[in-house]
């Protein structure tokens, strides 16, 4: 599933950011570029180059936000057949380390507004737990090639 799970709050926040970037911020950057052009020689005009770079970053973020909003699932996920899914707070146990970790399985857009760690469903740990049952004992490989064993302890719908 290529959809990004978002709370309504996160969706509204992203939509507001998109509107600002497509409207007032885009216009402000355009005006700075025009003002810098009027100063003359563009080769040595730091303000012009900085504004053009900011324009490129703004346009990239606009594309990213539009794609995310278009491909998002909003609201609270249902716990489907006792399986771990996006939008759930998951607790896993690492038997080899005798340690546990609790995290939200969601998008990085949620991470900025929650105190709990957030793992993407495409991260190694996120992908390992996605679709698993509570009590499942599984292994996954880290980017450095190490194999980690985990047990899914709990999975509850995020109440953020």
**Could you state the oligomeric state of the chains shown?**
single chain
Radius of gyration: 21 Å
Query: How does the major sheet shape up?
Result: 5 strands, mixed
- In the CATH hierarchy, what is the class of the largest domain? Mainly Alpha
* Number of E-state strands: 7
Which overall shape is indicated by the principal axes computed on the Cα atoms? elongated
Give the N-terminus to C-terminus distance in angstroms.
Answer: 22 Å
Q: SS-based structural class?
A: alpha/beta
Which CATH-level-2 architecture of the largest domain? Orthogonal Bundle
Strand percentage: 15-25%
In DSSP terms, counting alpha (H) and pi (I) runs of 4 or more, how many helices? 5
CATH topology of the largest domain: Helix Hairpins
Strand line-up of the largest beta sheet: 5-4-3-7-6
Low-confidence stretches: none
Our count of domains comes out at 2
- Average of per-residue pLDDT values: 87
* Corresponding CATH superfamily of the largest domain: Transcription elongation factor, GreA/GreB, N-terminal domain
- What is the H/E string? EHHHEEEHEHEE
Percent in helix: 40-55%
């Amino acid at each position: 599933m290529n959809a990004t799970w978002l709370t309504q709050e996160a969706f509204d926040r992203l939509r507001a950011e998109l509107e600002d970037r497509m409207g007032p911020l885009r216009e402000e950057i355009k005006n700075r570029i025009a003002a810098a052009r009027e100063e003359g020689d563009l080769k040595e005009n730091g303000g012009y180059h900085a504004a053009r770079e900011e324009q490129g970053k703004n346009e990239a973020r606009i594309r990213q936000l539009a794609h995310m909003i278009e491909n998002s699932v909003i609201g609270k996920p249902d716990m489907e057949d006792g399986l771990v899914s996006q939008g759930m707070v998951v607790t896993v146990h690492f038997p080899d380390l005798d340690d546990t970790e609790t995290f939200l399985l969601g998008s990085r857009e949620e991470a900025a507004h929650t105190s709990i760690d957030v793992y993407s469903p495409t991260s190694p740990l996120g992908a390992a737990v996605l679709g698993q049952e509570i009590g499942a004992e599984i292994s996954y490989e880290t980017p450095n090639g190490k194999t980690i064993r985990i047990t899914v302890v709990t999975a509850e719908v995020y109440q953020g």
